[in-house]
Amino acid sequence: QVQLVESGGGLVQAGGSLRHACGASGFTLSNYVMRWYRQVPGKEHEEVALISGDGGSTDYRRCVKGRFIISRDNAVNTVYLQMNDLKAEDTAVYFCHVRTIIQNYWGQGTQVTVSS
What we know:
By secondary structure, this protein is mainly beta. It is built from no helices and eleven strands. It has strands at 3-7, 10-13, 18-25, 34-39, 46-51, 58-60, 68-73, 78-83, 92-99, 104-106, 110-115. The N and C termini lie far apart (40 Å).
């Protein structure tokens, strides 16, 4: 059974930093691209960052490039999102995601609130 369990998030002042972690189970993490998405009320999920199975390739949404860092440790089945220089517009619920052959899987979501 595939599970994605997130930790991290919280309340931070603008300019601050937070780190998310996403623990994965039920599948071989290294075989899959992992993504972080975020969502604000009334809007669709938007992709924030992705990382290849071996961690050698990453990509970021333009507005977070240079501030966010996605990484993974396949040995402990965990994907991370380090968020630096946070801005009020980064306020959202953040989700980790994997797309397998069967379906899409999502973490439970963690709230990030950036106060200006």
